[in-house]
Amino acid sequence: MKPIIGITTFKEYKEQREYNSLDCDYINSVTSAGGVPLLLPVSNNKEDIKQYLNNIDGLIFSGGEDILPEIYGENPINDLRAISTERDFFEIELFKLAYDMDKPILGICRGIQLINVASGGTLYQDIYAQRENALGHYPTKIKRDSLYHFIDIEKDSKLFDIFNEERMMVNSFHHQSVKNVSQSFRITARSYDGIIEAIEAKNKKFVVGVQWHPEALVTNHKEFEKLFGQFIDAAKTK
Which of 15, 174, 215, 223 is labelled catalytic? Predict the structure, then answer.
């Protein structure tokens, strides 16, 4: 049996209708790695959230909006962009329950930030306003599958075990990032300006967050299939 992988969605409004949406790259990455993707609509019904988790083997937190700063004890700065409080509280509840159940979890872009905040960490609301000497992390005229900057990977980490590289190039589309890391996690990769690019749980079989978008890279940069492959393998283990 292939493992069922839940993937969080976001709400969007167009043509006077509301949709739960997701970039197809997430779906394709899970499918090609041997999993069955299951899209999870935003819900604030705790019993529904439990039911989601009872029917999946692994969980991906996808990219998207900024996270409400109030959740990690801050007021918003002027550089904050779009937020969705409904999605924030849904995903925090989803993460906490999944973490307690030791479900394999992969957080991507917003996903790494959500994992950190839900575990008690904080964020830079805008790295360009709040970090000195921040390099480019959010190019606007570039394809999503373009490698953009280097990261350094800690050797004693799941990420190193997956890629067997201490340095590699990734894509980048974010203006927020992890600031203070939750005590339950450790930093496993940084960019050259010190921005945190990956974290992993200290005492779980597979709870990993990455700041870049590997789902957009797997077609033309096959090495990133390894991340989804290891995640799917963890989801196969009951």
Answer: 215
Is 199 within 8 Å of 181 (Cβ atoms)? yes
In CATH terms, the fold of domain 4-236 is Rossmann fold (3.40.50)
The string of pLDDT tens digits covering residues 163-194 is 999 999 999 999 999 999 999 999 999 999 99
Tokens of residue 78, six digits: 């002027």
Catalytic residue among 137, 149, 174, 213: 213
Q: Where are the domains of the chain?
A: 4-236
Which distant-in-sequence residues (6+ apart) come within 8 Å of 116 by Cβ?
Answer: 122, 123, 178, 181, 182, 185, 199, 209
The torsion angles phi and psi of 119, rounded to 5 degrees, stand at: -100, 5
Question: Which pLDDT band, with edges at 50, 70 and 90, does 238 fall under?
Answer: low
Catalytic residue flag (residue 221): no
- Active-site residue, 24 included: no
The alpha-carbon radius of gyration of the chain (Å, integer) is: 17
pTM equals 0.97
Catalytic annotation present for 215: yes
Contact 95, 61 (CB under 8 A): yes
